[in-house]
Amino acid sequence: MSPIIVVKIGSSSLTSPGGGIHRESINFFARELVSLKQAGYSVMLVTSGAVAAGFRSIGYTQRPKHLHEKQAAAAVGQALLMQAYNEAFAQYDHRVAQLLLTRPDFSNRKRIHNALMTIEELLKHHVIPIINENDTVSVDELKFSENDTLSALVANVVKASRLLIVTDMDGLYTADPRKNTEAIKIERVDQIDEHIFRIAGGAGSAVGTGGMRSKIEAARIATRGGIPVFIGQANVEGDLLSAVEGSGKGTYFETSLHTLSMKKQWVGFHSSPQGTIIVDDGAMKALLTGGKSLLPAGVRETIGDFHPGDVVDVIGMERQRIGRGVVNYASWQLTAVAGLSLDEVQKRVEVIRPEVIHRDEWVSSEG
Q1: Is the model's pTM score more than 0.85?
Q2: Half-sphere exposure of 135 (CA within 13 A, CB side)
Q3: Cα dist. 161→41, 214, 244, 293, 357 in Å?
Q4: pLDDT by residue (tens digit) across 212-264?
Q5: Whole-Å CA distances, 184 to 38, 166, 172
Q6: N or C end of the chain: which has fewer CB within 10 A?
Q7: Which residues contact 269 (CB under 8 A, 6 or more apart)?
């Protein structure tokens, strides 16, 4: 199969400021994606815009704020959005297909495997998969932020050659260039750390829900899965191809030298944590910089009801999230032995593996 390029386009690039589909933008991006196919790539589109496309048609005067109103607007808007894509790509004799996904789909290995098989079959028949979140059934606490995270998870699942996140900014700056004339554009990022997140900025446009920070988080997820990322503009013919070839109007995020295995990707990004473990500073250091497993001696507290084999979040004493992993203890067992040595643990509980979380089943939030 040809190298796969995943392109994510947000609401502000597809809809009018006051809501409704911007047909010229849809047609432009259709031409750009077709150009990528003509250059020898398989392409996938992760789109936002269903709520923005539909809220005017349903009768709302502004983008709705309540969940049931957003879901109703999405139900109308998704049909309008796909109709616009169908008509745009038909001009170039290309077929498209719709896939609606939710975060729990990625937590269930069977469901995401089935989605992958569908995508592969569509690409084999030269059909362009268009993926959106299933807004009509998603709940706020499980939703993707403007589909940025969705695009990163999709890129990892299909092992894409590159993820292109299209936005109205031409990349990441040291400050907001619209407010600070001394802001400097960052051309390439080798490691996404807290400094990068701090300068990422906040809210996006009125019709979208994401900002640069959510795009940086998506880049972190994708690059840790081995997928290089471009975040920037595509508003002139040939921009997407330039982005793929390394000369795009944006910022490039390089992949780590040691990317995560598919198992660790599932633990770190796809799974649904069933509880939380609070660890002391020594354990935190051992996990983050020592390459060590988490032992009972470093545990200070547990939150939630979890069982051996569940995925749990791990946080420090100041409640900062440091990673997640597969736990070998039930919550009641870990509560009983928190802070104890392995010798003492063996006298109190019976577990298959003495480590609370083995380093092979641990994914740090950093790096």
Answers
A1: no
A2: 29
A3: 9, 21, 9, 32, 32
A4: 888 998 999 899 888 999 999 999 999 999 999 999 999 999 886 556 777 78
A5: 35, 20, 9
A6: N
A7: 106, 152, 153, 156, 221, 224, 225
